Amino acid sequence: MNISIFGLGYVGAVSLACLARDGHHVVGVDVDPAKLELIAAGKTPVVEEGMVELMAKVVRSGQVRVMADALQAVHDTELSLICVGTPSAPNGSQDQSAVLRLAEQLGAALRALQRPHVFVFRSTLAPGSVEEVLVPILERASGKCEGRDFHVCFQPEFLREGSSIRDYDQPPFTIVGAHRPEPVARLRTLFGHLPCDFHSTSIRTAETVKYGCNNFHALKITFANETARLCEALGVDAFEVMDLLCRDTQLNISRAYLRPGFAFGGSCLPKDLRATLHLAKLHDVELPMHAAILASNRTHVEHAIAKVLGTGRRRVGMIGLAFKTGTDDLRESPLVAVAEHLIGKGLSLLVYDPEVHLSSLLGANRRFIEDRLPHIGALVRSDLAAVVAQSEVLLIGSSDKRTLEAVRRLATADHVVVDLAHIGDTDDLSARYVGLAWGDPRRDCAEAVASERANSGQPPQT
Ligand SMILES: NC(=O)c1ccc[n+]([C@@H]2O[C@H](COP(=O)([O-])OP(=O)(O)OC[C@H]3O[C@@H](n4cnc5c(N)ncnc54)[C@H](O)[C@@H]3O)[C@@H](O)[C@H]2O)c1
Questions:
Q1: What's the gap in Å between 199 CA and the centre of ligand 1?
Q2: Alpha-carbon distance 184 to 156, whole Å?
Q3: CA 344 to ligand 1 center in whole angstroms
Q4: 121 CA distance to ligand 1 centroid (A)?
Q5: What lines the ligand 1 site, CB under 6 Å?
Q6: Distance (Å) of CA 403 to CA 217, 326, 387, 400
Q7: To test ligand 1's pocket by mutation, which of 11, 15, 46, 154 has the most ligand atoms within 8 angstroms of CB?
Q8: What's the Cα-to-Cα distance from 101 to each of 241, 280, 286, rounded to whole Å?
């Protein structure tokens, strides 16, 4: 393939060398003449293991050209990878000045082009940038239409400096965000041979996944480092602790606990986090990330309360009360916190939980509910149908299958379902749906179909 690469920093230079090595004809473009001169001389502009030899080899092979002329580069190629820097601005926002300037140039280059071109944004970009900012610039500057005269997609780059050639050849996965199948097919030709899964998704999702990955990596590093500082104070070997922690691939290094849902609670996580923070205080150890966890969890509870209040309805039926489905443990259940708050706001509340029978609650569990919600007995009902019938809002905090099936059956078009448990499919739900931190699958699906139709030129269905 004939490929142009814009921005010859770490990402662009490594991509240029690897794509040329794999037999493609590559044109490198940068605004920095020193980088162009280095590459033209077969030298690498970035310090990376293996790059000295690889760059010398690919430049010698004649597969690589460099130039400063963006117009020429677009005209000489069929696909462009955009790898310019997107650093932090002083206020923390993303400084997109380089990519915005470049988009103007690429659009101008497109104006005189007779065949469709594919632009692949590989720079890390704030979600929404490609669709809301870059495509409009390309269309305005070219006078052409995305999807018809040219294609755009976003393919996040996952290489790490220091091991970037290895990471190029063995990425964790390939993700391509695109509106249409054509650019995805082109990138499958380029990267489909790599030993990893290839996923195509929406542009905005791909942009967001890149941020999610980097934030998750930062979170993991900080977790290990805070754990080490605490271990140091306790005279415990942090490496052994983290090594053993990572050996649990069931709950720790796994998908467990990584599905969005409601706040955590129960008799273990909140109390053990509090005890960890207390221990740290005793030893003068600062654990700001650990300290932020409980505050963030409370924010999630407040978010749920805001969603219920946002419905404007006053009669709430809470489905689920225990801290998680399948238990009757009410201690530190975030649903209890929601119930308290709603009652405090003067809303009328009824509660149904298939596992909670007040008469059989024992010990600490019973004490907790008597201390926190002494009047809970008056609110709990054993008849789900009665709760649904007397409520305007159904606040779903349980994922119990049988209960959810019954709620789906009983809810009418007059109800609003506020879903804290992510009940999934809403097709058979006649009620209005409000997700805690996600949309209504029915609406998302309808929007996807409408956008697919718009893109394929078919008239919208009414
Ligand atoms: N460095 C990494 O390990 C890494 C990994 C994944 C993603 N990313 C992302 O990839 C992007 C590039 O990162 P990088 O580290 O390679 O950046 P970099 O700063 O090393 O290189 C960017 C290059 O773009 C050039 N440039 C600026 N404006 C240009 C223009 N109009 N036309 C042509 N070239 C232009 C600059 O001169 C520079 O050489 C960033 O968005 C970054 O967040 C970086």
A1: 24
A2: 13
A3: 53
A4: 11
A5: 6-12, 29-32, 35, 83-86, 98, 101-102, 123-124, 157, 159-161
A6: 38, 11, 12, 5
A7: 11
A8: 49, 49, 43
* pLDDT value at 171 more than 90: yes
Q: Contact at 8 Å (CB) between 64 and 38?
A: no
Structure tokens at 345: 């706001």
Instruction: Give the residue whose CA is nearest to atom 44 of ligand 1.
Output: 11
- Give the Å distance between the CA of 11 and the centre of ligand 1: 6
Q: Can you point out the beta strands (E) in 348-405?
A: 348-352, 393-396
Q: Which atom of ligand 1 is nearest to the CA of 45?
A: 39
Average of pLDDT values for 298-320?
98
Q: Which atom of ligand 1 is nearest to the CA of 164?
A: 3
Is-contact 121 173, C-beta < 8 A? no
| pLDDT tens string 326-369 | 888 888 899 999 999 999 999 999 999 988 876 666 666 677 77
Residues whose CB falls within 8 Å of the CB of residue 232, separated by 6 or more in sequence, listed in order: 238, 285
CB count within 10 Å of CB 202 equals 15
pLDDT confidence of residue 327: 83
For tokens 């979170």, name the residue: 219
* Predicted pLDDT of residue 459: 41
Helices 203-234 and 238-247 sit at what angle, rounded to 10 degrees? Answer: 140
Task: Give the other-Cβ count within 10 Å of 101's Cβ.
Answer: 14
- 268 among known catalytic residues: yes
Residue 17 has pLDDT above 70, yes or no: yes
CA 334 to chain centre: 24
For residue 107, give the nearest of 149, 159, 53 by alpha carbon.
Answer: 149
pLDDT of 457 > 50? The answer is no
- Please give the Cα distance from 210 to 190 (Å, whole number): 20
Note the pLDDT tens digit of each residue in 50-108.
999 999 999 999 999 999 999 999 999 999 999 999 999 999 999 999 999 999 999 99
Atom of ligand 1 nearest to the CA of 122: 10
Query: How far apart are the C-alpha atoms of 219 and 123, rounded to whole Å?
Result: 22
For the entire predicted model, the pTM comes to 0.92
Give the three-state DSSP class for 46.
coil
